[in-house]
Amino acid sequence: MIDRYSYPEMKSIWEAENRYQKWLEVELLVAEGLAEIGEVPKKAAKALRKNAKFEVRRILEIEGDVPGYEPKPGEEVVKHDLIAFLKAVMEHLGEEKRFLHLGVTSYDIEDTALSLLLRESAELIEKDVLALNEAIRKKAKEHKWTPMIGRTHGIHGEPITLGLKLVVWLAEMERNLERLRQAKESVSAAKVSGAVGTYANIDPRVEEYVCKKLKLAPAKAATQVLQRDRHAHYITALAILAGSLEQFATEIRHLQRTEVLELEEQFAAGQRGSSAMPHKRNPITCERITGLARLVRSYVTPALENMALWHERDICHSSVERVILPDASILTDYMLRKFTDVVKKLTVYPERMKLNLDLMKGLVNSEPVMLAMVRKGLDKDTAYKLVQSRAMRVWQERIAFYDLLKNDPEIRKWLNAKELAACFDVKHHFRNLEKIFERFGI
């Protein structure tokens, strides 16, 4: 578990105490389900509910996972987490202990409990996504009409607005929200069907009881475990989400470069950018998000490989999941919260955007000029060549594109002064943006 990048709410989900508590709750519900169908005395099920408890350290001692711990004479070191858990719980029980873990296998308990942990994580991440979406929405509304240059291949293309750039992010995050909700549904499943999924020693009605109480969907069919496509779905959804955050963070990093400086992460009072250079203001949070996205993405391959288990189950997935499921959840939660803070406190430089917009001396209006001539009757290829040849002169001679065109007889043959000037009005580029913003209610 990556403690440095843990916020308390997500970290608490994956703490050992919570995991074992989930195990205990599933065990108790199994006993109560058995009592409901008359296979366990209801008195025993109530006693289990009253008396069952555990201490994390004691579980680890019995499992043999406490360095330096010396077992008491006759005490077994079981090297099995669920058995260690059961033994630790039974130390607090009387006669009712014989009804604990009756007719079920380890992963009836562990996989069902894991589904609860994943659902809790997904719900927290869902809240994070909604918070980020709201931050992006507010910033997009604020800068709906703040003009800036749009870039393709890193080269100036045509004018856009900062608001448009942000609603593109918002649209992507809405898709991430949908994928996350689908993944949450995938992992919100349970199985209480015994060692190989046949219900040989446990009545299916017990599974129904447990699932109803936990608000989980019973697997239509399972082996000893829930199939790992569910968990791969969850990890993949987080990886795509992290990839989106990386894309957004990378954009801010580019726009914060000294030569561009259109956006900037907030630089707090007292913050230091470099141990050597006092002038430095670096996009460190966006760089951190970019790096952590690589880590989350790296968990996709092992999650997919975990799907291929031998027959009704082997254990190769278990060790992997103990790392990738908590870490991916913790990192995604952290990245979302950090990037939400970046968006809320983003410094915007409209004057620099205007300066950069004019940097190409009007070349960004080449398409409106070309299309205006096409609409007047010139074929497009000829119009393209005419405009391109003049544009190349601007590149080479660094003269104003508008001035060059207004004095060009070939161009003026097709466009009068008013028509040419209209091609250089930045509002031309934004005449249909309102339709895009309407889709977001902005």
Please describe what this structure looks like:
Helix 8 (204-214) links the parallel strand 3 (189-190) and strand 4. The chain folds into 3 domains: 3-99, Fumarase C, Chain B, domain 1; 106-356, Fumarase/aspartase (Central domain) (Fumarase C, Chain A, domain 2), CATH 1.20.200; 363-423, Ribonucleotide Reductase Protein R1, domain 1 (Orthogonal Bundle), CATH 1.10.40. Helix content is 60%, strand content 5%. The protein has helices at residues 8-14, 16-36, 42-51, 56-63, 81-90, 106-142, 162-187, 204-214, 229-256, 284-298, 300-305, 316-344, 350-357, 366-375, 380-397, 401-406, 409-412, 417-423, 433-438, and strands at 147-152, 155-161, 189-190, 217-218, 263-264, 347-348. It has 442 residues and is mainly α. Strands 1-2 form a two-stranded antiparallel sheet. Strands 3-4 form a two-stranded parallel ribbon. 38% of the residues are buried. Helix 10 (284-298) packs antiparallel against helix 12. The longest helix is centred in the first third of the chain and has 37 residues, at 106-142. The protein has 19 helices and 6 strands.
